[in-house]
Protein backbone atom coordinates (compact mmCIF):
# COMPACT_ATOMS: atom_id res chain seq x y z
CA UNK A 1 0.00 0.00 0.00
CA UNK A 2 1.25 3.44 -0.89
CA UNK A 3 -1.06 5.19 1.57
CA UNK A 4 0.46 6.26 4.84
CA UNK A 5 0.52 3.82 7.78
CA UNK A 6 2.83 5.81 10.10
CA UNK A 7 3.18 9.24 11.62
CA UNK A 8 6.73 10.50 11.28
CA UNK A 9 8.87 13.24 12.73
CA UNK A 10 12.24 13.96 14.38
CA UNK A 11 13.71 10.47 14.12
CA UNK A 12 10.49 8.83 15.30
CA UNK A 13 7.80 6.75 13.61
CA UNK A 14 4.44 5.92 15.20
CA UNK A 15 2.35 3.15 13.67
CA UNK A 16 -1.27 4.10 12.98
CA UNK A 17 -4.38 2.07 13.81
CA UNK A 18 -6.73 0.75 11.11
CA UNK A 19 -8.25 3.89 9.54
CA UNK A 20 -10.63 3.28 6.67
CA UNK A 21 -10.20 6.87 5.40
CA UNK A 22 -6.62 6.04 4.40
CA UNK A 23 -7.46 2.89 2.47
CA UNK A 24 -8.43 2.46 -1.16
CA UNK A 25 -12.19 1.95 -1.38
CA UNK A 26 -11.94 -1.82 -2.00
CA UNK A 27 -9.67 -2.33 1.00
CA UNK A 28 -11.74 -0.10 3.27
CA UNK A 29 -14.62 -2.52 2.89
CA UNK A 30 -12.42 -5.55 3.53
CA UNK A 31 -12.11 -7.28 6.88
CA UNK A 32 -9.34 -6.16 9.26
CA UNK A 33 -6.28 -8.43 9.46
CA UNK A 34 -6.31 -11.52 11.68
CA UNK A 35 -4.20 -11.50 14.83
CA UNK A 36 -3.26 -14.34 17.17
CA UNK A 37 -1.80 -14.45 20.69
CA UNK A 38 -0.75 -17.37 22.88
CA UNK A 39 -1.09 -16.74 26.63
CA UNK A 40 0.63 -19.16 29.03
CA UNK A 41 -0.04 -19.67 32.75
CA UNK A 42 2.28 -21.91 34.82
CA UNK A 43 1.85 -24.86 37.18
CA UNK A 44 -1.49 -26.06 35.85
CA UNK A 45 -5.03 -25.12 36.88
CA UNK A 46 -7.47 -26.60 39.39
CA UNK A 47 -9.54 -28.38 36.75
CA UNK A 48 -12.53 -29.19 38.97
CA UNK A 49 -13.35 -25.48 39.00
CA UNK A 50 -12.40 -24.90 35.36
CA UNK A 51 -14.22 -27.48 33.24
CA UNK A 52 -17.87 -26.68 32.31
CA UNK A 53 -20.36 -29.47 32.99
CA UNK A 54 -22.54 -28.77 29.95
CA UNK A 55 -21.38 -28.93 26.35
CA UNK A 56 -22.39 -26.80 23.40
CA UNK A 57 -23.75 -23.26 23.43
CA UNK A 58 -25.50 -23.57 26.79
CA UNK A 59 -22.35 -24.26 28.78
CA UNK A 60 -22.02 -23.06 32.35
CA UNK A 61 -19.21 -20.92 33.74
CA UNK A 62 -17.43 -22.73 36.59
CA UNK A 63 -15.95 -20.69 39.41
CA UNK A 64 -12.60 -20.10 37.69
CA UNK A 65 -14.31 -18.94 34.49
CA UNK A 66 -16.89 -16.70 36.19
CA UNK A 67 -14.79 -13.52 35.74
CA UNK A 68 -15.11 -14.08 31.96
CA UNK A 69 -18.90 -13.73 32.02
CA UNK A 70 -18.83 -10.35 30.17
CA UNK A 71 -17.17 -12.06 27.17
CA UNK A 72 -18.82 -15.48 27.52
CA UNK A 73 -20.18 -15.43 23.96
CA UNK A 74 -16.65 -14.79 22.67
CA UNK A 75 -15.17 -17.91 24.33
CA UNK A 76 -14.58 -21.42 23.05
CA UNK A 77 -13.67 -23.83 25.85
CA UNK A 78 -11.92 -26.98 24.62
CA UNK A 79 -11.70 -30.11 26.79
CA UNK A 80 -9.79 -33.35 26.29
CA UNK A 81 -6.64 -32.00 24.58
CA UNK A 82 -3.23 -33.50 25.41
CA UNK A 83 0.46 -32.68 25.01
CA UNK A 84 1.85 -36.19 24.63
CA UNK A 85 5.42 -34.89 24.39
CA UNK A 86 5.14 -33.38 27.84
CA UNK A 87 5.22 -36.92 29.21
CA UNK A 88 8.56 -38.51 30.24
CA UNK A 89 8.89 -41.17 27.52
CA UNK A 90 11.72 -42.66 29.56
CA UNK A 91 13.42 -39.36 30.41
CA UNK A 92 12.37 -39.31 34.07
CA UNK A 93 10.96 -36.33 36.01
CA UNK A 94 10.91 -32.67 34.84
CA UNK A 95 7.27 -32.25 33.86
CA UNK A 96 7.52 -28.49 34.33
CA UNK A 97 10.37 -28.06 31.85
CA UNK A 98 8.71 -30.35 29.31
CA UNK A 99 5.30 -28.71 29.71
CA UNK A 100 6.57 -25.25 28.78
CA UNK A 101 8.89 -26.63 26.09
CA UNK A 102 6.15 -28.50 24.24
CA UNK A 103 3.46 -25.90 24.94
CA UNK A 104 3.68 -24.30 21.48
CA UNK A 105 6.07 -26.74 19.79
CA UNK A 106 4.26 -30.02 20.56
CA UNK A 107 7.79 -31.49 20.53
CA UNK A 108 9.87 -33.49 23.01
CA UNK A 109 12.81 -31.48 24.37
CA UNK A 110 16.27 -33.03 24.48
CA UNK A 111 17.20 -33.69 28.09
CA UNK A 112 20.24 -31.49 28.70
CA UNK A 113 21.35 -28.68 30.97
CA UNK A 114 24.12 -27.69 28.55
CA UNK A 115 24.21 -25.64 25.37
CA UNK A 116 23.04 -28.54 23.18
CA UNK A 117 19.35 -27.79 23.71
CA UNK A 118 17.05 -29.06 20.98
CA UNK A 119 13.30 -28.82 20.66
CA UNK A 120 11.24 -27.69 17.66
CA UNK A 121 9.83 -24.60 15.98
CA UNK A 122 6.82 -23.20 17.83
CA UNK A 123 3.46 -22.61 16.17
CA UNK A 124 3.64 -18.85 16.77
CA UNK A 125 6.90 -18.64 14.85
CA UNK A 126 5.49 -20.64 11.95
CA UNK A 127 2.68 -18.08 11.85
CA UNK A 128 5.15 -15.20 12.21
CA UNK A 129 7.02 -16.43 9.15
CA UNK A 130 3.89 -15.82 7.09
CA UNK A 131 1.93 -13.09 8.87
CA UNK A 132 5.06 -11.14 9.79
CA UNK A 133 5.66 -10.23 6.15
CA UNK A 134 2.93 -7.60 6.48
CA UNK A 135 4.04 -5.96 9.73
CA UNK A 136 7.10 -4.20 11.13
CA UNK A 137 7.48 -6.80 13.91
CA UNK A 138 7.11 -10.42 12.82
CA UNK A 139 6.13 -11.35 16.38
CA UNK A 140 6.12 -10.00 19.91
CA UNK A 141 7.23 -12.07 22.93
CA UNK A 142 6.21 -10.86 26.39
CA UNK A 143 6.66 -12.14 29.92
CA UNK A 144 6.51 -11.20 33.59
CA UNK A 145 9.67 -13.08 34.63
CA UNK A 146 13.11 -12.99 33.02
CA UNK A 147 14.20 -15.98 30.98
CA UNK A 148 17.30 -17.91 32.01
CA UNK A 149 18.95 -19.42 28.94
CA UNK A 150 21.53 -21.56 30.71
CA UNK A 151 21.88 -23.76 33.77
CA UNK A 152 19.58 -26.43 35.12
CA UNK A 153 16.07 -25.55 36.28
CA UNK A 154 14.27 -28.89 36.40
CA UNK A 155 15.81 -32.37 36.90
CA UNK A 156 18.55 -32.11 34.29
CA UNK A 157 16.68 -29.90 31.82
CA UNK A 158 18.00 -26.50 30.77
CA UNK A 159 16.34 -23.38 32.13
CA UNK A 160 15.75 -22.40 28.50
CA UNK A 161 12.96 -24.97 28.34
CA UNK A 162 10.98 -23.70 31.34
CA UNK A 163 11.58 -19.99 30.58
CA UNK A 164 10.45 -19.89 26.93
CA UNK A 165 7.45 -21.01 24.91
CA UNK A 166 8.39 -19.37 21.60
CA UNK A 167 11.14 -21.06 19.52
CA UNK A 168 12.41 -19.72 16.19
CA UNK A 169 14.48 -22.84 15.51
CA UNK A 170 14.93 -26.09 17.47
CA UNK A 171 17.98 -24.52 19.16
CA UNK A 172 16.91 -20.88 19.38
CA UNK A 173 14.23 -19.64 21.77
CA UNK A 174 12.76 -16.20 21.14
CA UNK A 175 13.79 -14.00 24.06
CA UNK A 176 10.74 -12.51 25.74
CA UNK A 177 10.68 -8.92 26.95
CA UNK A 178 9.56 -8.13 30.50
CA UNK A 179 10.28 -4.39 30.57
CA UNK A 180 7.25 -2.39 29.38
CA UNK A 181 9.47 0.53 28.36
CA UNK A 182 11.39 -1.63 25.91
CA UNK A 183 8.19 -3.22 24.63
CA UNK A 184 6.78 0.24 24.03
CA UNK A 185 9.85 1.32 22.08
CA UNK A 186 9.69 -1.80 19.92
CA UNK A 187 6.03 -1.28 19.10
CA UNK A 188 6.27 2.41 18.32
CA UNK A 189 9.57 2.29 16.49
CA UNK A 190 11.71 5.01 18.02
CA UNK A 191 14.59 4.68 15.59
CA UNK A 192 17.05 7.39 16.61
CA UNK A 193 18.90 6.42 19.83
CA UNK A 194 20.01 10.01 20.50
CA UNK A 195 16.45 11.30 20.05
CA UNK A 196 15.17 8.52 22.32
CA UNK A 197 17.62 9.48 25.06
CA UNK A 198 16.70 13.17 24.76
CA UNK A 199 13.00 12.37 24.92
CA UNK A 200 13.40 10.24 28.04
CA UNK A 201 15.43 12.95 29.76
CA UNK A 202 12.88 15.60 28.86
CA UNK A 203 9.97 13.26 29.63
CA UNK A 204 8.43 14.21 26.30
CA UNK A 205 5.75 12.07 24.72
CA UNK A 206 6.45 10.20 21.53
CA UNK A 207 3.43 12.09 20.17
CA UNK A 208 5.27 15.40 20.57
CA UNK A 209 7.68 14.32 17.85
CA UNK A 210 4.98 13.52 15.30
CA UNK A 211 2.55 16.33 16.11
CA UNK A 212 2.99 18.19 12.81
CA UNK A 213 2.45 15.03 10.77
CA UNK A 214 -0.59 14.22 12.91
CA UNK A 215 -2.05 17.69 12.25
CA UNK A 216 -1.74 17.19 8.49
CA UNK A 217 -3.24 13.72 8.72
CA UNK A 218 -6.36 14.93 10.56
CA UNK A 219 -7.25 17.03 7.52
CA UNK A 220 -7.32 13.88 5.38
CA UNK A 221 -9.58 11.86 7.68
CA UNK A 222 -13.31 11.50 7.90
CA UNK A 223 -15.10 12.33 11.14
CA UNK A 224 -15.17 8.76 12.48
CA UNK A 225 -11.49 8.22 11.79
CA UNK A 226 -10.55 11.53 13.38
CA UNK A 227 -12.21 10.27 16.54
CA UNK A 228 -10.36 6.96 16.30
CA UNK A 229 -7.04 8.77 15.87
CA UNK A 230 -7.66 10.98 18.90
CA UNK A 231 -8.68 7.97 21.00
CA UNK A 232 -5.60 6.05 19.84
CA UNK A 233 -3.25 8.91 20.69
CA UNK A 234 -4.83 9.29 24.12
CA UNK A 235 -4.22 5.58 24.69
CA UNK A 236 -0.55 6.03 23.76
CA UNK A 237 -0.21 8.93 26.20
CA UNK A 238 -1.86 6.91 28.98
CA UNK A 239 0.53 3.98 28.49
CA UNK A 240 3.51 6.38 28.55
CA UNK A 241 2.24 7.91 31.78
CA UNK A 242 1.88 4.52 33.46
CA UNK A 243 5.36 3.43 32.36
CA UNK A 244 6.84 6.63 33.79
CA UNK A 245 5.02 6.06 37.08
CA UNK A 246 6.45 2.55 37.25
CA UNK A 247 9.97 3.82 36.51
CA UNK A 248 9.62 6.55 39.11
CA UNK A 249 9.17 3.86 41.77
CA UNK A 250 6.02 5.31 43.32
CA UNK A 251 5.07 1.91 44.78
CA UNK A 252 6.82 0.66 47.89
CA UNK A 253 8.59 -2.59 46.92
CA UNK A 254 8.52 -3.80 50.51
CA UNK A 255 4.74 -4.02 50.30
CA UNK A 256 5.06 -6.74 47.66
CA UNK A 257 8.19 -8.50 48.86
CA UNK A 258 9.97 -8.17 45.49
CA UNK A 259 12.61 -5.97 43.92
CA UNK A 260 11.79 -5.76 40.19
CA UNK A 261 14.15 -4.45 37.55
CA UNK A 262 13.95 -0.75 36.69
CA UNK A 263 10.94 0.16 34.60
CA UNK A 264 8.82 -2.82 35.64
CA UNK A 265 5.80 -2.15 37.88
CA UNK A 266 6.29 -3.53 41.35
CA UNK A 267 2.75 -4.90 41.59
CA UNK A 268 2.26 -8.05 39.53
CA UNK A 269 -1.23 -7.02 38.42
CA UNK A 270 0.06 -3.65 37.20
CA UNK A 271 2.80 -5.42 35.26
CA UNK A 272 0.34 -7.84 33.61
CA UNK A 273 -2.19 -5.12 32.81
CA UNK A 274 0.45 -2.89 31.25
CA UNK A 275 1.80 -5.70 29.06
CA UNK A 276 -1.76 -6.65 28.06
CA UNK A 277 -2.42 -3.03 27.10
CA UNK A 278 0.79 -2.92 25.08
CA UNK A 279 -0.26 -6.11 23.31
CA UNK A 280 -3.65 -4.57 22.53
CA UNK A 281 -2.09 -1.44 21.06
CA UNK A 282 0.44 -3.53 19.09
CA UNK A 283 -2.46 -5.38 17.47
CA UNK A 284 -4.45 -2.21 16.96
CA UNK A 285 -1.52 -0.43 15.34
CA UNK A 286 -0.83 -3.53 13.23
CA UNK A 287 2.76 -3.45 14.50
CA UNK A 288 2.50 -7.24 14.74
CA UNK A 289 -0.13 -9.92 14.22
CA UNK A 290 1.52 -12.69 16.28
CA UNK A 291 2.36 -12.63 19.99
CA UNK A 292 3.10 -14.85 22.98
CA UNK A 293 2.91 -13.95 26.66
CA UNK A 294 4.18 -15.99 29.63
CA UNK A 295 2.38 -14.70 32.71
CA UNK A 296 5.19 -16.42 34.64
CA UNK A 297 7.86 -19.01 33.93
CA UNK A 298 6.89 -22.66 34.30
CA UNK A 299 7.63 -23.97 37.78
CA UNK A 300 7.62 -20.44 39.20
CA UNK A 301 7.39 -20.10 42.95
CA UNK A 302 6.08 -16.54 42.71
CA UNK A 303 3.96 -15.33 45.61
CA UNK A 304 0.81 -13.20 45.30
CA UNK A 305 0.62 -11.14 48.50
CA UNK A 306 -1.80 -8.67 46.89
CA UNK A 307 -4.48 -11.41 46.99
CA UNK A 308 -3.35 -12.90 50.28
CA UNK A 309 -1.22 -15.73 48.87
CA UNK A 310 2.21 -15.56 50.50
CA UNK A 311 3.26 -19.15 49.80
CA UNK A 312 5.00 -19.93 46.52
CA UNK A 313 2.86 -20.95 43.54
CA UNK A 314 4.90 -24.08 42.73
CA UNK A 315 4.94 -25.17 46.35
CA UNK A 316 1.16 -24.81 46.58
CA UNK A 317 0.61 -26.72 43.32
CA UNK A 318 1.98 -29.81 45.11
CA UNK A 319 -1.00 -29.66 47.45
CA UNK A 320 -1.35 -33.42 48.06
CA UNK A 321 -5.08 -32.93 48.56
CA UNK A 322 -4.62 -30.35 51.34
CA UNK A 323 -7.78 -28.22 51.14
CA UNK A 324 -6.06 -25.09 52.45
CA UNK A 325 -3.43 -25.28 49.68
CA UNK A 326 -6.07 -26.06 47.06
CA UNK A 327 -7.98 -22.97 48.12
CA UNK A 328 -4.89 -20.80 47.56
CA UNK A 329 -4.27 -22.40 44.15
CA UNK A 330 -7.88 -21.59 43.22
CA UNK A 331 -7.28 -17.95 44.22
CA UNK A 332 -4.19 -17.74 41.98
CA UNK A 333 -6.03 -19.35 39.06
CA UNK A 334 -9.00 -16.99 39.44
CA UNK A 335 -6.66 -14.00 39.74
CA UNK A 336 -5.09 -14.85 36.39
CA UNK A 337 -8.59 -15.28 34.97
CA UNK A 338 -9.69 -11.88 36.21
CA UNK A 339 -6.71 -10.22 34.49
CA UNK A 340 -7.52 -12.14 31.30
CA UNK A 341 -11.15 -10.99 31.50
CA UNK A 342 -10.04 -7.35 31.70
CA UNK A 343 -7.85 -7.79 28.62
CA UNK A 344 -10.54 -9.52 26.56
CA UNK A 345 -13.11 -6.91 27.59
CA UNK A 346 -10.80 -4.14 26.37
CA UNK A 347 -10.33 -5.92 23.05
CA UNK A 348 -14.11 -6.24 22.76
CA UNK A 349 -14.62 -2.57 23.60
CA UNK A 350 -12.14 -1.44 20.91
CA UNK A 351 -14.05 -0.79 17.65
CA UNK A 352 -12.52 -1.96 14.40
CA UNK A 353 -14.16 -2.25 10.99
CA UNK A 354 -17.74 -3.44 11.41
CA UNK A 355 -17.06 -5.03 14.79
CA UNK A 356 -14.44 -5.04 17.54
CA UNK A 357 -10.74 -5.77 17.74
CA UNK A 358 -11.57 -9.04 19.53
CA UNK A 359 -13.55 -10.16 16.49
CA UNK A 360 -10.37 -10.30 14.39
CA UNK A 361 -8.29 -11.95 17.12
CA UNK A 362 -7.62 -15.51 18.21
CA UNK A 363 -6.46 -15.50 21.84
CA UNK A 364 -5.36 -18.94 23.10
CA UNK A 365 -5.06 -19.20 26.91
CA UNK A 366 -3.93 -22.23 28.87
CA UNK A 367 -1.18 -24.25 30.53
CA UNK A 368 1.08 -27.16 29.60
CA UNK A 369 0.11 -29.00 32.79
CA UNK A 370 -3.40 -29.89 33.81
CA UNK A 371 -3.32 -30.68 37.55
CA UNK A 372 -0.19 -29.24 39.14
CA UNK A 373 -0.27 -31.91 41.83
CA UNK A 374 -0.39 -34.82 39.37
CA UNK A 375 1.83 -33.19 36.72
CA UNK A 376 -0.35 -34.69 34.00
CA UNK A 377 -0.37 -33.41 30.44
CA UNK A 378 -3.78 -34.69 29.36
CA UNK A 379 -7.14 -32.91 29.58
CA UNK A 380 -5.31 -29.58 29.55
CA UNK A 381 -7.00 -26.26 30.31
CA UNK A 382 -7.58 -24.61 26.94
CA UNK A 383 -9.58 -21.51 26.16
CA UNK A 384 -9.86 -19.76 22.78
CA UNK A 385 -11.29 -16.23 22.67
CA UNK A 386 -12.25 -14.14 19.65
CA UNK A 387 -13.69 -14.88 16.22
CA UNK A 388 -10.56 -14.76 14.09
CA UNK A 389 -10.43 -18.54 13.55
CA UNK A 390 -13.22 -20.17 15.59
CA UNK A 391 -16.92 -19.94 16.31
CA UNK A 392 -17.05 -19.04 20.02
CA UNK A 393 -19.79 -19.21 22.62
CA UNK A 394 -19.42 -22.99 23.13
CA UNK A 395 -17.81 -25.75 25.16
CA UNK A 396 -16.51 -28.58 22.94
CA UNK A 397 -15.36 -31.86 24.48
CA UNK A 398 -12.90 -33.96 22.49
CA UNK A 399 -11.95 -37.62 23.05
CA UNK A 400 -9.33 -38.26 25.72
CA UNK A 401 -5.73 -37.89 24.46
CA UNK A 402 -6.65 -35.77 21.43
CA UNK A 403 -3.37 -33.99 20.55
CA UNK A 404 -3.21 -30.28 21.33
CA UNK A 405 -1.16 -30.11 18.13
CA UNK A 406 -4.38 -30.81 16.18
CA UNK A 407 -5.62 -27.42 17.36
CA UNK A 408 -2.39 -25.87 16.10
CA UNK A 409 -2.89 -27.47 12.67
CA UNK A 410 -6.35 -25.92 12.46
CA UNK A 411 -5.10 -22.49 13.58
CA UNK A 412 -2.28 -22.59 11.04
CA UNK A 413 -4.74 -23.37 8.25
CA UNK A 414 -7.15 -20.67 9.41
CA UNK A 415 -4.32 -18.12 9.13
CA UNK A 416 -3.20 -19.14 5.67
CA UNK A 417 -0.45 -21.67 6.51
CA UNK A 418 -1.62 -24.81 4.71
CA UNK A 419 -0.52 -27.98 6.48
CA UNK A 420 -1.92 -31.23 7.83
CA UNK A 421 0.85 -31.93 10.36
CA UNK A 422 2.50 -30.13 13.26
CA UNK A 423 4.43 -31.72 16.12
CA UNK A 424 2.63 -34.90 17.20
CA UNK A 425 -0.64 -34.00 15.46
CA UNK A 426 -2.88 -36.54 13.76
CA UNK A 427 -4.77 -34.00 11.68
CA UNK A 428 -6.88 -30.85 12.10
CA UNK A 429 -9.14 -30.45 15.15
CA UNK A 430 -12.86 -30.71 14.34
CA UNK A 431 -15.55 -28.57 15.89
CA UNK A 432 -13.79 -25.19 15.87
CA UNK A 433 -16.28 -23.60 13.48
Structure explained in plain terms:
- This protein has twelve helices and 15 strands.
- It is an alpha/beta fold and 433 residues long.
- The strands form five sheets. A seven-stranded mixed β-sheet has the order 5-10-3-13-14-4-15, sandwiched between helices.
- α5 packs parallel to α9 (268-284), α8 packs antiparallel against α9 and α9 runs parallel beside α11 (323-349).
- It is globular and about 65 Å long.
- The two termini are 32 Å apart.
Which oligomeric form is depicted? single chain
> N- to C-terminal separation?
32 Å
Strand order in space, largest sheet: 5-10-3-13-14-4-15
Total discrete domains: 2
Amino acid sequence: MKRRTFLRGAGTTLALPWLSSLLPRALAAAAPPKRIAFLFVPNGIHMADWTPRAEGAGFDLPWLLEPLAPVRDDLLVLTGLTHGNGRPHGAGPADHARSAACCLTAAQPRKTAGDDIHLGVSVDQVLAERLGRSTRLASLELGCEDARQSGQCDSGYSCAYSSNISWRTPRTPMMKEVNPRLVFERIFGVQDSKQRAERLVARRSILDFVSEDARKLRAELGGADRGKLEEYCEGVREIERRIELAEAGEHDPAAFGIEPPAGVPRAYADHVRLLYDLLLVAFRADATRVASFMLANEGTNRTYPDIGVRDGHHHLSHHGGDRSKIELIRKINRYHGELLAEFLSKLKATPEGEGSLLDSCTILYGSGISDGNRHNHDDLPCLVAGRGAVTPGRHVRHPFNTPMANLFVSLLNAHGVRTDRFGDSTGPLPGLT
